[in-house]
Amino acid sequence: MKYIYLIIFAFSIVSCNNTPYVQGKRLFAANCANCHMEDGSGLGELIPPLNKSTLLGQASMVCIVKNGIKDTLFKDSTYLLKEMPSFSHLSATEVTNIINFINYKWQPSFKEITILDVEQALKTCQ
Amino acid sequence: MNFNFLGIAFLFLLFTACKNNQQTLPFLGETIVENGKEIHHKVGQINHYTQDSTLLTNKDLEQYIYVADFFFTSCPSICPKVAKEMLRIYNEVSDNPNVKLVSFTIDPKRDTPERLRLYAENLGVDHKKWLFVTGDKDATFELANTFFVAAFEDAESPGGFDHSGKILLIDKEGHVRSFSEGTDPSTTPKLIDDIKLLSESYNTKGK
Q1: Is B87 on the interface with A (CB under 8 A)?
Q2: In this predicted structure, what is the pLDDT of residue A10?
Q3: Where in chain B are the domains?
Q4: For labeling, which of B26, B129, B135, B162 is most exposed (least CB within 10 Å)?
């Protein structure tokens, strides 16, 4: 019987990891990391890096994650390869978790956004 | 007793170390023996156009060892990861004139030479060193099989194609000599070592 407490104790230590945004991390791995890479470094001029993005902490991230982006990020005429697909299947909660994880990871001074913020921002998407 | 055991272990280490020095890369795929001669598996017919719209055939690649992968530019799944590893290899071999990289698109309908050129330019790579090629779709699927890469159309896959992310090393004679998993960056250093090993084997042969 004593061992059960020991196991629970050990488990609780293991499950305490350093990432506060566990769902965001998981969703990032599933939806974003294939292109933006796990370390957020992107790929050449093809895929913009997240770790140095000027959009970090901006509310416009919400619409980009949800609806993708076609040409506004890039000024030249070669944007046809620079299209980010939409992730319309993500719920407002999931978008919130992803954005908080991205900001937490690459913008340490970020202000956490809430589901309400995201729902508000989604109304402004074009 | 302990000392003896150590001695044996040391000898064993020496033996395996020596063996490593003489290492040559295996020939992947089936090897048949005809008239007492070993015939190794070769990659199929390359008849593709590069991002500069020039024709590329197996003959053009005879002077080079090359690193190949199969991809498409609008691929939303594994391709960027594989491309990142190809780029890592590209940077490692940029000084070696014996090595080229060849990326075959499996989506020729969308990936015209012009589009491949844009892709290469956005990656910032030398068009003569890293060739992005397009050709007949079915012929490319068949060609992929000879590189031990599965590639086929699949409406349910992201982007409409299913394919594996292997990166392959081909020698001057068209034999497959090594590979890495483009989706697993930890397998890339071994492939880079193999490229150097294969390249040096031609230098010592005086070819």
Answers
A1: yes
A2: 63
A3: 2-26, 34-205
A4: B26
Task: With beta carbons less than 8 A apart as the criterion, state whether B168 and B197 touch.
Answer: no
Residue B49 pairs in a beta bridge with: B55, B134
Beta pairing, strands B65-71 & B99-105: parallel
CATH number assigned to the domain covering B34-205: 3.40.30.10
Of A99, A62, A36, the residue nearest B76 (C-alpha): A36
pLDDT in tens, B162-183: 888 999 999 999 999 999 999 9
Q: Could you state, in order of their start, the residue ranges of all structural domains in chain A?
A: 21-124
Which are the contacts of A1, defined by CB distance < 8 A and separation ≥ 6? none
Complex ipTM tops 0.85? no
At the second CATH level, the architecture of A21-124 is Orthogonal Bundle (1.10)
Beta carbons within 8 Å of A119's beta carbon, 6+ residues apart: A92
Cβ count near B116 (within 10 Å) = 26
Chain B interface includes A46 (CB < 8 A): yes
